[in-house]
Amino acid sequence: MRPTGVYFENFAAEARVLETRRARLWLVALCILLVALPMLAGPWLLGQLTYAFITLIAVYGLFVTVGMAGQINIAQSAFVGVGAFSAAKLSGLGVPFWLVIPAAALITGAVSVLFALPAARVRGFYLALTTLAAQVMFPIVILALPMSWLGGLVGMPVVSPDLFGLSLGGPRGFYWLALAFAAAATWCAFNLPRSRLGRAMRAVHDNDTAASVMGIPVTRIKIEAFFVGALFAGVAGALTAYFLQFVTVSSFTLFASVWYLGMLIVGGIHSPLGPILGVAFITLIQEGLHAISNALLQSGSNIGGGAVFALSSILLALCILIALIFEPRGLAHLWQTAKTTFRLWPFPRN
Amino acid sequence: MITLIQTLIDGAMVGLVYGLVAISFVVIYRASKIINLAQGEVLVFGAFLLWTFTEGSGYAIPLPIALVLTLIACVVFGAVIERTVFRPLIGQSAFTIFMAGVALLILLRGVAQLVWGAQTRSAPAILPEGAIEFGPFLVNTRLLIGAVFTVCLTQALHLFFTRARVGLRLAAVAEDHTTALSLGVSVRQAIAVAWILGTVVATAAAAVLLSGSILSLGVAVIGFKALPVALLGGLESIRGAPLAGLIVGMFEALAATYLDPITNGAASGLLPYLLMIAVLLIRPYGLFGWQRIERL
Lengths: 350, 296
Fold this sequence. Notes:
The complex is a heterodimer. Chain A is an all-alpha fold.
């Protein structure tokens, strides 16, 4: 429901993502703030934000596969890993940065199509099991390949990127780079649901038998959903490789996949706003837990790193369960409700 | 030739243990339509409970009493999971229930790590260690007892699900939650029974698998190995699980003996999952599962 006085004179205006001038001004303000942030913030905060941007890109990929098309994917972290290893290998071969990112995305997309092919025969959680197979097989394959190919157990170093002679190695340069990619991913994620492909995915999500009756090629849409989701994952993986300047198998576990899914579910799987809120919320919780455990460590209590990891797992699991049981539409829906309540105050919302 | 047959025997024995874990998947699915990814974690939980009552308690509890205590703890554990996680989700979409299982996976892993710690410890030796000789071949006693146990349990559970009134009711729940509810079947009770049975079977599998060897959080991987077995046997078929376990176990043993030296140890690790994808492509409902007909 829109407030009084907001009306549209043509369809193009009504179809916009940002309907009002005020919303567009807010967006511009947010962009200016984010671009200018390196002038104000220290390297620690910039590093955290950069990592959050990269995670956001991966979660957007999950939003496309899981939220829009309704296909469960618990291998997003393996797909990110494929992107990271492709980027590391390609940059090791001397391929320039601007070519590595799309190449890594395409390689990841191709790998994901391989695991999406059973969509022709199975659906629902059976399909999710093939992604589970992908996630479990990923480290086994990397570790079994010869050391000189993908680094095996040790991992691979990655040189910091430079774009047309401009070094992007420092925390500031890389922050802007990640911000640019996150902004592009955000644009894609907000516009994809309005496209032909996005609407087809939505139909498949709601009822794939009905969708096929309407003439939507269900299998192709499912495979495309995995492909598009993996493109995002590939970009996120390539950025991770450049950001950490080192890739090892141990960063791309089933747990990381669950973290991505948790962020998406807590944020809300049906709205492109969900990934933003979910990533922000879960990152804040994680950092809060780290701060508390650091404080405990300094006060001399004997809490170990293992206990902190266990606690963060438990906390994430509880977040997911609470979201599933009490608010399956996630923080995005709570945000909309809060906005409506604020606008209508002091009148009741319904 | 002797190596080949010995490999097959070992593979078959290990495969029946996979089958036992797969039965715990099947029992939960057959009774509640929940595919529980956290089954490996449930198994580890059961193993830790067993350890707590045998070696961790500090008292010399006799083995039978320790087993009974573990059984009671498993029942309580299964009931708690049903009450807190799955009861509020009755009738929700497959996605929601699947994700609840994923959340449960990391929840149980976290709790186990917090309560018992991440260090490895020796698991209680319940079954006798050793080997029986059949001509030139050796059969591990522990796994042989486990195999016999698996076969007996399979038959008992099969009779329960196809003959007993309660078991037949559970099958209705596996078909569809809403339909079962409208026919007066208590879905809550079904899910509780499913979880209690699943936990007990998983703990039994842990006892057979780990008896006298090492217990750590990493053991949970067995859950992901048993998933292809459950899928191959058919998620609704109790008797399919041990048979599929035999197949997977033998193939895995063959791959470990003959292919691993060539592939740097990857073949036996990858095989169950490649098999799983093949099953999904060729016969998604498994060897003995129910074939579902989709309607608009």
